[in-house]
Design a protein that fits this description.
Layout: H1 2-7, H2 9-56, H3 59-64, H4 68-79, E1 85-92, E2 97-102, H5 116-127, E3 134-142, E4 148-156, H6 158-169, H7 176-208, H8 223-249, H9 260-277, E5 281-288, H10 291-298, H11 300-316, E6 323-328, E7 331-337, H12 341-357, E8 360-362, E9 365-368, E10 372-379, H13 386-402, E11 408-410, H14 423-430, H15 435-448, H16 455-469, H17 474-486, H18 496-499, H19 507-514, H20 516-524, H21 534-539, H22 560-574, H23 586-595, H24 603-617
Parallel strand pairs: 10-11
Antiparallel strand pairs: 1-2, 1-4, 3-4, 5-7, 5-10, 6-7, 8-9
Length: 623
């Protein structure tokens, strides 16, 4: 007990209170206490207001009745004979009582619509309480639905007055020794406590600013010392939890690899470092070939297991400094810091070969095979920013899939004889949401392919008008217009030599050209606000009879915007001089459209399109 008296903050507070009491009583004296009664009463009233303010926070829960424990706690506090609270009442903004509690609460203290002051009078009358003996405090509050209410607490002053009378009668017991003891204890205890509290305040501010290494030195064994130890433990726990949360936020739950969020953050850091020190950083985009068919055949649990196996294969074939990421779905990525293009190609080929050689276990089987297509790009030789590096590797991946899958393709590998197109510039242009920028981008693509000025805008105008006459909504007509402008953006990844070749194309050259809808889709999908144009870009080279590319769709399987764009693009191309095709007259081009209706083109679309051409020739179609 002696040890507790010396070390307990509770004991220190008691000593400080007694010493202060002696000091006040000795200094003011018996006669001055009468004058001081008003001051003590004001302090009591402030305390009552503080209590009311705290209780008012629970107004919504008291009225709703949802928290029975809270209601029971409040009720027991009110009915405690040693407490000053005589009653509490919650009323709406019209003064109607919503909740009431009292030491002397009748069985039916109020009825719906009863004014709160009538309830208070009834409670006081039932308890035989003099209204002069009640100090009432009202605070504004609100219910759970936001409705304003008033929270009124009535405090009985009898105990407070009695306490002051007793204190007054004992003032003569104050002594000079009490004065000295009070001053000395107040100074020593106050200094001890304030120093510890200031340390806690500094610690709280440090942690709030993000300094999780801050610790408070504990010099005492009392409650403040225990509080300091608890504070240090709390900060350590917060630091550990923060690290765990960051790790979970950056980790894919299925494979254990880093996720798309972390890729964006880390790649930005690596590109900045490479720029600062004039180094290289490469990025691999990896996609499992025909993974949808694998899922359909073996089920999604087997697909998840295959993804986990593949993540391990990738992790075992990269360095500790490399960053393997699950980019999304069946697509993975690997960041290769301090790695140039030839070295990245070696790593990509090693991963591709390891995936091909790996036996994936499915339902007890160990001989299921999968392959992967990989796109490779390097900063700064092939792009100028993080977004450009992602886009260029993604375009290379689509080239790899279009050229037969299970292969590694380097971005821009076939464009050595022509100026490189920076994919970041395309990224920036595509993220612009104004039509003039889109049209300027289309003009730039036309110029690269040596089309006549305004070629793509002519296709866009004819296609959007055809869509409008087919009854498509105006928003879809606008999407058709944009799709026509951007339909050939995927051909920016094709060598100028192939595009301008007059003779017969090789199989690889045809494959490169056939891949441009996929590449265009990969480029445009980087701009979320252009998602509505993607089906038309992807499928504008499909044929009505199913012999088109890249998906070999037929008939109504082909999205209507793509069928419209196919006709408009074909007509405009036929009347334009190209190296591998002779130029047709408008009449010959129309006859070609009619002849190939139901095979290459949708007959209904051709019919409406010819009407658009007729109106254009007659001057009825706005330019």
């Amino acid at each position: 007990m002696t040890r507790r008296t010396k070390t307990s903050v509770e004991a220190k507070l008691c000593i400080l209170t007694i010493a202060t009491f002696f000091t006040v009583m000795l200094g003011v004296g018996h006669l001055a206490l009468n004058e001081h009664r008003s001051v003590l009463m004001e302090q009591k009233q402030e305390a009552y207001q503080a209590v009311t303010r705290a209780l008012a926070l629970s107004a919504g829960q008291l009225v709703s009745g949802k928290d029975s424990r809270l209601i029971e706690t409040v009720s027991s506090r009110v009915k405690n004979r040693h407490m000053d609270i005589e009653y509490l009442i919650v009323a709406d903004e019209h003064g109607h009582t919503l909740f009431a509690e009292s030491k002397n609460l009748p069985k039916k203290p109020f009825s719906p619509g009863m004014r709160w002051w009538f309830v208070a009078r009834r409670i006081m009358g039932y308890g035989g309480i003099d209204p002069e003996d009640i100090y009432s405090v009202t605070m504004p509050s609100a219910l759970d639905n936001g409705e304003p209410v008033s929270f009124t607490v009535g405090f009985r002053l009898a105990q407070a007055k009695e306490m002051m009378d007793v204190a007054q009668s004992k003032v003569l017991l104050g002594m000079a020794v009490g004065l000295m003891v009070g001053v000395i204890c107040a100074v020593l205890m106050g200094r001890s406590m304030s120093s510890a509290l200031r340390s806690l305040i500094r610690g709280a501010k440090a942690v709030a600013s993000g300094n999780y290494a801050y610790r408070i030195s504990t010099k005492s064994e009392d409650e403040i010392g225990q509080l300091a130890e608890a504070f240090n433990f709390m900060v350590e726990t917060l630091a550990n939890s923060r690290e765990q949360l960051i790790e979970r936020a950056n980790t894919d739950s299925l494979t254990g690899l880093y996720n798309h969020r972390y890729l964006q953050e880390r790649l930005g850091i690596e590109v900045s470092r490479a720029s600062r020190y004039n180094r290289s950083v490469s990025l691999l985009m990896i996609d499992i070939d025909f993974f949808k068919s694998f899922n359909d055949s073996h089920g999604h649990p087997a697909g998840d297991e295959a993804l986990r196996d593949l993540s391990q294969v990738i992790a075992h074939n990269v360095r500790e400094t490399d960053v393997a990421v699950r980019y999304g779905g069946e697509e993975f990525a690997v960041i290769l810091p301090e790695t140039n293009l030839p070295e990245a190609m070696i790593t990509a080929e090693r991963i591709r070969q390891s995936v091909e050689d790996h036996a994936f276990g499915v339902g007890g089987e160990e001989n299921v095979k999968l392959t992967a297509s990989i796109g490779v790009a390097e900063y700064p030789s092939q792009c100028s920013d993080r977004a450009g590096l992602i886009l260029s590797s993604d375009v290379a991946l689509y080239q790899a899939k279009a050229l037969g899958r299970n292969r590694v393709i380097c971005y821009d590998a076939e464009m050595a004889d022509s100026p490189r197109t920076d994919p970041y510039k395309l990224y920036v242009l595509l993220h612009s949401q104004d039509l003039p920028t889109m049209e300027a981008l289309a003009d730039a693509v036309d110029a690269k392919f040596k089309y006549p000025a305004g070629h793509s805008k002519a296709v866009a105008r004819l296609a959007s008008e055809t869509a409008r006459r087919l009854g498509m909504p105006e928003s879809e007509c606008s999407s058709v217009y944009l799709a026509a402008l951007l339909r050939d953006i995927g051909q920016t990844a094709i060598s100028d030599g192939i595009l301008s070749k007059a003779g017969t194309l090789t199989d690889n050259e045809r494959a490169a050209i056939s891949a441009h809808p996929l590449v265009g889709h990969a480029i445009v999908q980087q701009a979320p606000h252009l998602c509505s144009v993607l089906p038309a870009i992807m499928h504008h080279h499909e044929r009505f009879d199913g012999n088109g590319y890249p998906s070999h769709l037929s008939g109504m399987e082909i999205p209507l915007p793509a069928r419209v764009l196919t006709v408009a693009d074909a007509y405009q191309s036929m009347i334009t001089l190209r190296p591998h095709r002779k130029q047709m007259t408008p009449v010959e081009a129309k006859e070609e459209l009619v002849q190939k209706s139901s095979t290459q083109f949708d007959p209904k679309v051709v019919e409406v399109f010819l009407g658009v051409l007729a109106d254009e020739e007659a001057g009825k179609l706005a330019a």
